[in-house]
Write a structure and sequence with these properties.
heterodimer, A: 115 residues, mainly beta, 4-stranded antiparallel β-sheet, 56% strand, B: 114 residues
Chain lengths: 115, 114
Amino acid sequence: DVKVTQSSRYLVKRTGEKVFLECVQDMDHENMFWYRQDPGLGLRLIYFSYDVKMKEKGDIPEGYSVSREKKERFSLILESASTNQTSMYLCASSLWSQGLGQPQHFGDGTRLSIL
Amino acid sequence: AQSVAQPEDQVNVAEGNPLTVKCTYSVSGNPYLFWYVQYPNRGLQFLLKYITGDNLVKGSYGFEAEFNKSQTSFHLKKPSALVSDSALYFCAVRATGGSYIPTFGRGTSLIVHP
């Protein structure tokens, strides 16, 4: 079965810390995504990657960076955490297949609190 | 640009009654349309998708959705709701010839009352 694993379910960090959120998929998917989910705002795309070492900004990249050194792993980095980055973070992956409308597969999320 | 509207923040239905969760979309060209469900403290799970062909699409857990091109809608339906269907539902769209990045609606909370 398809599996997207996020390293932490809950995380508490302090303002100014550098925070790493890790995501691993075991499906050999080309595409990987990072979203944040906030009540009333739905899912907002932070970054996505369509291949190893490739990345593109999403709708809200400010304050974040990403790393994809291996196909199965996509890391989200909060360079200097701020309280407005307290949120639920969701990782997703999908096959690159333009013609087949492949769905995304999501991890269970990391609920991050910045104090 | 592509967009999705889920006009209801919350839908309430009694167990055993039919349910509908509404979704309308805007996209250049033909759409790929998706429904996902999110249970508390979990990620999104794929329910069903429309790519082409029959306008009525069947998916997991007895859900189905009807694609209506003229009304640009893709409403999620189930003939008989269960209490366990209570969750957050997201509609998503992406253009067939464009970016492979989908756009999500804001979600609709479905509450099924016993």
